[in-house]
Amino acid sequence: MTRRRKRNQTAGDRTRAVLANRRALLERERFFRKFGYDLPRGIAFTLAQALPLGGSVLEIGTGKGRLLMELAKRVATVTTVDITAKERTFARLNARFADVEDRIKFVLRDAGRLPWRNGAFDAAVTFNAMHHIPHFRRVLEEMLRVVKPGGKIVLADFSPRGFQIMDRIHRAEGKTHQHEVHHFRDLRSFLRKHGLKTRLSKGCNQEVLVATLAATDE
Question: Is residue 218 part of a domain?
Answer without folding.
Answer: no
